[in-house]
Design brief:
Layout: E1 2-3, H1 8-13, E2 17-21, H2 22-28, E3 39-42, E4 45-53, H3 59-66, E5 69-70, H4 73-79, H5 99-113, H6 129-172, H7 174-182, H8 187-226, H9 240-257, H10 259-266, H11 270-275
Parallel strand pairs: 2-4
Antiparallel strand pairs: 1-4, 2-5, 3-4
């Protein structure tokens, strides 16, 4: 935002001031031209530019928003002989009031004020940010579940991969395990060795994956911050509790992945191993 927005004094004094969008500025002014304090004409009425705004939306919504010019509605009604007619209005409700309740109450009052039948859905059009928020929450919840499913499949594939690696390792280390058994290593010692190796491999893989994931998000955040069209996906990040939960889950799965290789290692007979 460059300059300021419309304030109470503008409304009370019917000041002929305007806040223009970024696109309007590009169309009406040169790049190096001073905009704040300049004058524009709207249907023959001169307004002073007091602010230039940049839309926080993306795509066509951003383009449409930045093509707009805002003036005090009191000035607009007076300058263009609109009287007390209001085309639309926006309301900010308290946080403790449900959005659908507020919408229903406002519509009830407006219909009663303008003698519109209470059951007429066409009397007043309305749009609620709460409804949009609910829709977006539903969409992102679906994304979250899809991510959870694919993440679970990825973890399962990783566990299978680690288990196969350990099975191949045990097969290649048959002689080593046989020598350890011949020198007095107990089955518990063998199980602990295999489990520790499996957990170490799992934790290291989890740490590397976490570091790469955080680095990727930081790079993406830097790219979106520098971009003019970052939309709702600005500042992507992963919280510490998510990282710890993922690492803990991988540790548990790694322990499960080490069970089969450990059992396979216990089947190694010292005599047979030394013959190979």
């Amino acid at each position: 935002m460059e300059g300021r927005y419309i304030n109470e004094r503008d409304l009370e004094d019917r000041r002929k001031v305007a806040v223009i969008g970024k696109r309007v500025r590009q169309l009406l002014f040169d790049r190096e031209e001073q905009v704040l304090g300049s004058h524009i004409q709207i249907q023959g009425v001169t307004f002073t530019v007091v602010g230039v705004y940049r839309s926080q939306q993306t795509g066509e919504d951003a383009e449409e928003s930045e093509n707009s010019i805002f003036t005090p509605y009191t000035t607009f009604n007076h300058a263009f002989h609109m009287g007390d007619r209001v085309g639309w209005l926006s309301l900010l409700i308290r946080e403790d009031v449900p959005g659908d309740t507020a919408v229903a109450e406002v519509l009830r009052l407006l219909k009663a004020q303008k003698s519109v039948h209470p059951d007429d859905p066409r009397g007043f059009g309305h749009w609620s940010m709460a409804e949009m928020h609910e829709e977006m929450t539903t969409v992102f919840s679906a994304f979250r579940w899809v991510s959870f499913v694919f993440g679970g499949l990825a973890l399962f594939a990783g566990v299978i991969g680690i288990m196969n690696i350990m099975l191949i390792t045990i097969k290649e280390r048959t002689r080593e395990l046989g020598v350890r058994r011949a020198l007095g290593a107990t089955p518990a010692n063998i199980v602990v060795q295999i489990m520790v190796e499996t957990l170490t491999l799992t934790v290291l893989a989890g740490l590397v994956g976490g570091i790469l994931g955080v680095a990727t998000l930081e790079a993406l955040d830097a790219f979106l911050t520098a971009s003019e069209d970052n939309g709702i996906f600005r500042h992507p990040h992963v919280t510490l509790d998510v990282l710890l939960t993922a690492l803990g889950t991988m540790t548990v799965l790694g322990a499960l992945a080490g069970v089969l290789p450990a059992l396979r290692a216990l089947r190694v007979e010292p005599v047979e191993a030394l013959r190979t």
